[in-house]
Amino acid sequence: MSASKSHIDVRTALKQGLAQLREAHVPSFTLAAELLLLHVLNRDRTWLYAHPEEQVSTADAERFIALVARRAHGEPTQHLTGKQEFWGLEFEVTPDVLIPRPETEHVIEVALDRLALRERRAGRKQTLTGEGLQIADIGTGSGCIAIALAKEMPGAAIYATDISSPALAVAHRNANRHSVFDRIHFLESNLLDGFTARGAANAGPSVVGAQHAAPLLGKDAPHESPVTSQQSPLLDLIASNPPYIGRREAATLMREVRDHEPEIALYGGEEGYELYADLITQAAAHLKPGGILVLELGHNSLPAVQPLLDAPTWSSVGVTNDLAGIPRVLAAERL
Ligand SMILES: C[S@@+](CC[C@H](N)C(=O)[O-])C[C@H]1O[C@@H](n2cnc3c(N)ncnc32)[C@H](O)[C@@H]1O
Questions:
Q1: Ligand 1 probe mutation, 93, 135, 142, 164, most atoms within 8 A of CB
Q2: Regarding predicted confidence, which is higher, 229 or 171?
Q3: 263: CA distance to ligand 1 center in Å?
Q4: Of 198, 220, 233, 263, which alpha carbon lies 20 to 30 A from 20's?
C-alpha cells in the first residue's frame, strides 16, 4: 500500500492493510487492520461494513498506511490506537502499562463470586454493593482491576498500588475517565509496603510501610498520599495480577510483548513466580479474618504458588481455569 494510492475507498484500504499485515505474519491481521482503520476514521465496526464504498481522505489514508507499517514492524495495535477494552470498559493504554488481557477478567469474576458468597454466609443482602468493603489491587498497571471492581461495587473503598509511577499516571487517567477517581486511592509502593500493618504502627523502624511509599503527584492531593498507620485498613479483598513471566522464557515471547510491553510488568524473576511468596505473606498481614486473596497465575505458576497458601493461615483455596483450560486464578480465604 502506498500514499500515491490514497484515493481509495474503505473496502480497498482495508484489503490492502490486511494484506500487508498478513505478509508481515501479524497475528489476527484482519482484526488489526480493522481496528487501525476504525481508529483513523473514528468510526465503529458497523459503519465500516455498511459503507465499503465511502472514500477515504488522503490524510486518513496516509495515517492508516503509517499505522499499518508500524503494526507490521511489531508495535501492538493497542499502542497505536491507545486503547483496550476490559470488562466492557475502554481503557487508555500506553507503553508504560501492560495491555489488559481477557484472562484477567477471571480475577474480577472470582473476586465478585467470593465476596458475594461471603455476604450470603453472613446473612447479608444478595446484591453486592461493596458498602463498607476495603479492597486493594496490587500492581494496578492501567488500573483495569481496581476500576472494574469500583464500577461493580459503588460502595467499596479501593486502594491501587504499583511500583511504577508512569503506570500509576495512566491508572489515574483511567479512573477519571470512568468516574471512579474519588473512590480509588493510588499508591506508589512495592507490593503492600505502602500499607502499615495495623497494630504494628509503633513497632519502630522495622515496620513495613508508609516511609517507602511515594505520593504519585502533589502531596496535597487527597487520593495520592501514602496510607498512614492511622488510615491503614484491614482489607476485605486483595486482588493482584503480578508480573509472572520468567526471564528464562523471554526468548519465547511474541515480539509485541517482549519488545513493547514494560519489563517491570512482565517479569517476576528468573523463573517468573518469585513475587508471589512476598505478596502472599504481606496479604496475610493486611487481610481481615475471612478476607479474600485473588491472584492471577502464569501458565506454569500453580505448582510453585499453591503450596504457599497453606493452613493454618489460609482456607478455601480454589483454582479457576481460563478459557484455554490453564489454571489462571488462585483464590483463598484468610483464617
Ligand atoms: C502483569 S502487570 C498487571 C497490570 C494490571 N493489573 C492488569 O491486570 O492488566 C503487573 C503490574 O505490577 C507492577 N509491579 C511490578 N512489580 C511490582 C512490585 N514489586 N510492587 C508493586 N507493583 C509491581 C507493574 O508495574 C505492573 O503494572
A1: 164
A2: 171
A3: 10
A4: 263
